[in-house]
Amino acid sequence: MTKKNVDTLDYALFRQTIGTIQPIKNNNMAALEASKPLPYPKKNSSTILATPTDLTEQLPLLGKEDAVHFSNTSLPKTLLTKLQQGYFPVDAELDLHGLNSQEAKRHILKFIEECVTEGCQCIHIVHGKGYRSSDDFPILKNNVNLWLRQHHAVQAFCSAPQKDGGTGALYVLLETAFR
After folding, report:
1. Sign (positive or negative) of CA dihedral 16, 18, 21, 23
2. How far from 97 is each of 33, 48, 90, 108, 159, CA to CA, in Å?
3. Number of Cα atoms under 13 Å in the Cβ half of residue 64
4. CATH number of the 70-178 domain
5. Under a CB-based contact definition with an 8 Å cutoff, are residues 48 and 151 in contact?
6. What pLDDT digit, counting tens, does each position of 145-164 carry?
7. Which parts of the chain fold into alpha helices (H)?
8. pTM, to two decimals
């Protein structure tokens, strides 16, 4: 490293601007202890809230081709639009084809727990349209709609675009997106 030559005029101007300097007589500083933040309990993402009867009564039954969307009330409305447009890159995917309701619930809980732990923002869940369900009532699609609304880590979800499964799949935005 080379030493920079300072012009005598620059040096004089600097000294004139700074003025006279007084050395510090006491170099001791008072040490302030930073207060530690209070601990908070870790959320257990494997628990879904108990099924409130008013929530299940309020949710209309979804058909095979019905689109679904949900957003936490504290989130901006533009966030759901961005999710629907594919603004968030998909970090992980889960396919529930061929599973019954109990197996699907277990897989979803485990999957969301792992995704939250790994810091995933947006996940893709394929539940299918329910073509093999009886009475044009897609059981898994309706159950996933209910389960995701009750899960504390889920901030928003919507039906995926046609290229990613359409009404048989969901984009889900997790709480890690807002930390």
Report:
1. negative
2. 56, 21, 19, 12, 16
3. 8
4. 3.30.1370.110
5. yes
6. 999 999 999 999 999 999 98
7. 8-18, 53-58, 77-84, 101-118, 139-150
8. 0.67
